[in-house]
Write a structure and sequence with these properties.
Elements lengths: L2 E5 L3 H13 L3 E5 L2 H10 L4 E4 L8 H8 L10 E5 L3 H7 L4 E4 L4 H11 L11
Parallel strand pairs: 1-2, 1-3, 3-4, 4-5
Length: 126
């Protein structure tokens, strides 16, 4: 089952995204900041990370820099999920995608599916 790690300091956003992803056939885990995300990735390597930029302890920019050399997350696709502008993210070429926090659930799921496929539910047809 594809594992998605949701990293955001807002508990409501983390819970909503994790529940939505679980309903769609993903194993979803969450972390409140970049440092905890590294710890969780060490325990269960994710297939995709949805990352907020503005967080305490270790923010998204620091996490993206750590991603370059940290074996726990090196090579894992990261989609920034933030209210911050996508231009800065794409210019730095640090992330594999960008989602505005105001994006609807359909846009979030399309972006996640573009990176990792969900596990089909029993009895469903692809």
């Amino acid at each position: 089952m594809a594992r998605v790690l949701v990293v955001d300091d807002d508990a409501d956003i983390r819970e909503t995204l994790a529940e939505t992803l679980a309903l769609e056939g993903y194993e979803a885990e969450s972390a409140p900041n970049g440092l905890e995300a590294l710890r969780r990735a060490d325990a269960h390597r994710p297939d995709l990370i949805l990352l907020d930029l503005m967080m305490p302890v270790m923010n998204g920019w620091e996490f993206l820099r750590a991603r370059r050399t940290d074996p726990r997350v090196a090579g894992v696709p990261v989609v920034v999920f933030s209210a911050s502008g996508s231009v800065a993210v794409s210019e730095a070429n640090e992330a594999d995608g960008f989602l505005d926090k105001l994006a609807d659930v359909g846009a979030v799921l399309r972006t996640v599916r573009a990176h990792v496929a969900p596990t089909p539910r029993p009895g469903s047809t692809p």
